[in-house]
Design goal:
Chain A is built from 15 helices and 12 strands. By secondary structure, the first copy, chain A, is an alpha+beta fold. The N and C termini of chain A lie far apart (about 60 Å).
């Protein structure tokens, strides 16, 4: 990797010296680096994240490390993921303006991106754990997904450009490999990196690993994930990749970006809301989170409704690509033909997103990378009980995804499973 | 395209002079170029094809032209297609040994490939028009498809290699564009390049263009074709891309190669057999082709059976990729889990191949590139009648592909439609 031959990880101490001449940073913070205040705040699984503040303003400096931070140097991970994050941020900003942090500078050799410091935003997952109801997330996230997924596909892009971009992102193979292994396979056999909360879950884990229908579904979904290069995905769109205030929603960390199936982003996001729902019992006293649970189910229903509405609007107004051409429908006076095709596309997406959601829930409880929603439940038995309900829910929607008709049904299922703890 | 700055089209006269020092050719033909006999035999739609013979032996020199030969210089087409043909031939030779011509030399700048001259092979389409029954084609083509499609996918390849190869072939965008436009869209609206046999078909053409369900299916299939980068396809696997003797079957012309859905190659091939079936009536006297029709339906059934058998064998013995990993099935003692997943994969492929077959039939009769099967029927009314039956057949299998269970049903449908001409 000669492209990163000069790479050196930053520290809070070396950052002002090393980036003193980086115009994109200096113009934001001020030229007197002695007055820069730098702190490392990365709490994710992979990277270094510095907040730099000075007289003039602030910025985030995100730098990749040549290994998985969560695991250590024993798991190397290429620095080029920073390149893919940079390119994904540029495309998302163009396709869904105002939804991602502004990028001020990119240094490929040092695998670092200087970007907007979002403040007073907090990570959505943290807010949901605290029981905060964010009023805008369903609308903002529905719009973000519809716009990025639609506009990055052959529904809208020039195909030659999409294929060139597909080729570019095809090199993000190591990060796709993480998803392919950790999400779609590891939870369903005794993979070395797996862990789960307590022996209380052993029986259920064994049951899921022996569940033939579930495993076949998980592999069908992996096949779809690996083969179906439909659009540029965020690739890791969970509540830890979203920063919020009451009035704003911003999406960060698209380093897993690649061309994959639209339903993956949507399914992963909804899965994380359903996990937040099942985790509430671990954070409440005597029904104090009832309203929060109702809010989460409403967010799920509204996110999917907003997504569908915006996707449909774009279908009717920006369907300029090679797929479902107007020449075959509207231009022949057959508007309903285009609507019929839209129903097909949304129906397939619905079926697939349920599958992806179910699998995402499993890997967050059985695999390597767990969710703070559950992890912050101190009482191990309580945590295991919450997780067990989520696991059963995930199994049901993954295996029965072809026979489930509406989000109302899925949310009713979540309530049914959640209600059983009271019985 | 600086890569082809020195490109110059060969002629039968200039070839011996220009290739006199091409070791891969000289070693086959002999060093005395004065004794080379060269003739241009290209009868396809795109390229120059020379047969070179000499004292020592023979070879084919295939050279791309910077435009579509069938249409002329008004339709430019990049020379790099020769690069993709070369790379596809190498991969097919490795994955299905003995099925493609040996490659002796490749010149990227001149867009030319020196390859084995297949003799006394003839083009399969010609043989079928003549009413010849080739005994080996079902088995050979079933094996070819199973081996190339399986071994070029994540079922077998290392994923990092598949993604690098996907990126390589993603640049074959102009040839994919031909398929995307000519196969999936043009037949269903008044595209400028369309033509059909006679006004006798006008009514049916209008009916098909007004057929909402058909058009939506065609676009669903285009979506699949454009997005589902499952394996390295031949990309143009019809009976004109196959050379045969009674004892050998060889597959040529993979310049349309790219990563697409497995079902596309299979569907296109079977479609061309069904078209041969419907064209027989144009080449017979009083039932003289009854046996040939029966043979063609048998070839179709056997090709799909051979494909399934070999694909299943590879599934059980060479499933070494990231999909449907043994760790989740056989290694847990769950052989039936792997068989269940195989059934899912084959079932989806079956549904999709029927769709691709139906669409391929339409474009060969309504679009730009017609088939010799029908074109060689001199009587225009007879030709239109044969084509009408094929069009109705194609519509039925494309639209009803989710509700058709077996090849026997499809062949029975073909017989029913063919039988109606007698009524």
């Amino acid at each position: 990797m000669t492209r990163h031959a000069s790479f050196e990880a930053l520290t809070a101490e070396t950052l002002p010296v090393r980036l003193a001449r980086t115009e994109g940073l200096v113009s934001l913070i001020g030229a007197d680096t002695a007055r820069w205040r730098v702190r490392e705040v990365g709490d994710g699984n992979l990277n270094l994240v510095f907040i730099v503040e000075g007289d003039r303003g602030s910025a985030v400096v995100k730098q990749a490390l040549p290994y998985v931070r969560l695991v250590g140097e024993s798991w190397p991970l290429p620095l080029k993921r920073s390149f893919f994050e940079y390119h994904a941020l540029k495309r998302q900003a163009a396709r869904a303006p105002g939804t991602v942090p502004k990028v001020h500078h990119f240094d490929d050799a040092q695998a670092l991106i200087v970007m907007e410091y979002l403040s007073p935003h907090i990570i959505l997952r943290k807010a949901l754990i605290e029981g905060r109801q964010l009023p805008r997330i369903a609308r903002d996230l529905g719009l973000f997904m519809a716009r990025t997924l639609f506009r990055g596909s052959d529904l809208h892009m020039k195909t030659a450009e999409r294929k060139a971009d597909l080729a570019l992102f095809a090199d993000n193979v190591e990060l796709c490999d993480i998803t392919e292994s950790l999400v779609f396979s590891d939870p369903y056999f005794a993979a070395p990196l797996n862990r789960h909360t307590s022996p209380h879950l052993d029986g259920l884990v064994a049951e899921l690993r022996a569940d033939r229908d579930l495993k076949v579904e998980a592999q069908r979904l992996k096949h779809l994930f690996a083969a179906n290069a439909e659009t540029l995905l965020h690739g890791d769109l969970h509540s830890g990749s979203i920063m919020v205030t009451d009035t704003e929603t911003r999406i960060i960390d698209p380093e897993f970006a690649f061309y994959g199936p639209m339903a993956f982003d949507v399914g992963m996001l909804l899965a994380n809301f359903w996990m937040a729902f099942f985790a509430q019992a671990g954070h409440e006293q005597a029904g104090s989170r009832d309203a929060m649970r109702a809010y989460l189910l409403e967010v799920i229903a509204d996110t999917w409704a907003e997504f569908r509405a915006e996707f449909s609007r774009l279908w009717r107004t920006e369907r300029d690509g090679i797929l479902y051409q107007r020449a075959l429908f509207e231009d022949q006076g057959d508007t309903l033909g285009a609507e019929q095709a839209l129903d097909h596309v949304l129906s397939t997406m619905w079926t697939d997103l349920l599958g992806f959601a179910g699998i995402e829930i499993h890997r967050r409880i059985l695999g390597l990378a767990h969710n703070a929603d559950f992890e912050t439940i101190a009482d191990e038995d309580l945590r295991a009980a919450c997780e067990a309900r989520a696991l059963r829910f995930g199994r049901h929607i993954a295996v029965n995804r072809n026979r489930i008709h509406s989000l109302d049904e899925v949310n009713a299922l979540a309530c049914l499973i959640e209600g059983e703890r009271l019985a």
